[in-house]
Amino acid sequence: MTTTLETGTKSPAAADTGRRGSHALRWWVLAVLGIAQLMVVLDATIVNIALPAAQADLGFGDGDRQWVITGYALAFGSLLLLGGRLSDLFGRRNTFIIGLIGFAVASAIGGAATTFEMLVAARVGQGVFGALLAPAALSLLTVTFTEPGERAKAFGIFGAVAGAGGAIGLLLGGALTEWASWRWAMYVNLIFAAVALVGAVLLLAKHTSNARPKLDWPGTITVTAALFGIVYGFSQAESEGWTAPSTLAFLIGGTVLLAVFGWLETRVAHPLLPLRIVSDRTRGASYLTVFIMGIGMFAIFLFLTYYMQLTLQYSPIMTGVAFLPMVAGMVASSTTAPSLLLPKVGPKVVISGGFLVAAAGMLWLTQIGLDTGYATHILPALVLLGLGLGGAMSVAFQGSTAGVDHEDAGVASAMVNTSQQVGGSIGTALLSTIAASAMTDYVAAHQPGPLTMAQAAIESYTTSFWWATATFVLGAIVIGVLMPNTVPAPAEGEPVLAH
């Protein structure tokens, strides 16, 4: 066997090696990575739909319910950077396969859960192995597709999967809960994992490295604790309030530890997150894009789901179907923006423009009422949101790993997921608090009664949509200032074993 640098280019020599991984079979590799990414992404929403049925079956209280969601978010969010670096050190193929198997086992345990504690433990397990799986998938894509034209198409397809996964999770969760059992919201991951695992074993090239892996333990411990504190702090803010001692302690502690982590990374020989990863303007602005999107997208899924189910009386399945136009918009823009728009107008225009289109869609949603129709008030907004966010997300995914060495592809990819997870945590806490405050203020200012309560709920939704609109507009301005308007450079290929 010989060691080669896997680039995905179309050189005759590369074609003749017969190696697995990223040349003749690279589009099949993309399919495998897409299935794994879909499994991780949809798991964030599929369980939300199944949660009421799980609560009734296992008999746990409303106060405990949040831990089924928070347990996953805490493990996933706090371990992502470690997962990304492990894939750089020990090989993306190995990390990807371990992540798949672990995620499947945790899902099986969750589906078979007989107690609340067993379900939460399974969700934590999903988060741990998801933190290995998600960065490995994106970094494998990064080192597999390095030819600019193919790279744009591949990242567009991957971005479409990542963006649409949440909405697909709502539909799948509703269908499985209504037609089968809430347990299938967990068991369905075994199907995704089995298909992806077969593909990974057959297709992914084996990583090779002569260097002995070195892990930055001080940085790992510090940033894991920092991200845990921040994610948990925001979850506490949602349930306990912003001024609660536990909220303040975790948020302040997490922020301080994050600053300590940044200082440590300038001092250690083998940093967990080399600061060159985030200091590059294209990559830094791409992480910021995903972060802002995480904040705003929360409003779409949570409050629009509430509106459709509680006000319009849609079933879980109907709610999932209602989100499909957004999925279509995301797929359309994700698969065209990187290959058609990006080379012509540059990433700054595509991302800022995408944010403005999404802001228009969110602004449309602020006009909903007690008796507004789907076709007039929800459908156009979802199409605009899908078109805007899909294009911006796929271009940001491409920019997030632009020009990285193969040794850094895993941790650069992990920064994407970390940005999205922290943004989602902030969106959850901030918009939930704003919505609750708007509802309270409306009830206090009007005569009590069923109509007042119904209208107060509308007020809470529309207020959160206004804030999400402002978030997207601000995102367009910030990215317009920070993002260089040059097409992101491809990443370096990866050394693999050739036959």
Description:
This protein has 499 residues and is an all-alpha fold. α8 runs parallel beside α16 (409-444) and α11 runs antiparallel to α17. The protein has helices at residues 12-16, 26-58, 62-90, 92-111, 116-144, 148-179, 184-203, 217-240, 245-265, 275-279, 281-311, 316-322, 324-345, 347-365, 374-400, 409-444, 450-482, and strands at residues 2-6, 494-498. It folds into two domains: 21-215 and 272-491, Up-down Bundle (Growth Hormone, Chain: A); 216-271. The protein contains 17 helices and two strands. The N and C termini lie close together (5 Å). The longest helix is centred in the C-terminal third of the chain and has 36 residues, at 409-444. Strands 1-2 form a two-stranded antiparallel ribbon.
